[in-house]
Amino acid sequence: MTTGVYSENDTLFTMHDLVHDLARFFMVNEILVASKQGNSGGSQGNTCHFALLNDCSKPLESPKIRALLFMECGKTKLHGGAFSFSKSMHVLDLSDCSIHKLLDSIGKLKQLRYLMAPRVQDETIPDSFTKQSKLIYLNLHGSHKILALPKLIGEIEGLMYLDLSDCSIGAELPESFERLKELLHLDLSNCCIQKILEALVSFIQLKYLNLSGCRHRTELPRLFGSL
């Protein structure tokens, strides 16, 4: 007779497998995978909360989607109505898309908390973008053509993470920028900002600040050391 000896690691791996299988069991009807169901997902698409799509040239017709990730879409232009039906969207990841411009429809996603939209190829950010009062995370890194931030960007007062690295966002930040009091992470590396707002010294929540590569900036505010 052979006696099996199980170590603590074996037990952990077994528990991990069980949890994984259990998650798949419960989530099977909540995930829309494009390779299997297309962007509409038929009747099932109306109940899905999470979507993994490999075609951003078609509209998403699932109104209850809360998290959307596009995969392998780097050479495909983002469709103007790619997610206009999804009013409950919390997470939107466009990092694998060709973003010719930030769509006005993004500004209509009133529940959006997380937006990853790097390498935007347009010069402007729609004014409607500043209406996303619940946005916490915004990443626009590598958007070389953006000339300026919206004047009212400060209306996104709950913003905690902002990455504008490698962006051409003009000589100075908008005055409303000082209203982003909840910022924890701010990356302005490799931006040609010639004037750093005195308001930055009031960002008392700030944990991370990157100004590396800002070669054209003037002297930092006198009170900067109080951060």
UniProtKB/TrEMBL annotation:
PANTHER family: LEUCINE-RICH REPEAT-CONTAINING PROTEIN 57, PTHR47186:SF47
Protein name: Uncharacterized protein
Source lineage: Eukaryota, Viridiplantae, Streptophyta, Embryophyta, Tracheophyta
Species: Triticum urartu
Alphabetical list of InterPro entries matching this protein: Leu-rich_rpt, LRR_dom_sf
SUPFAM superfamilies: L domain-like (SSF52058)
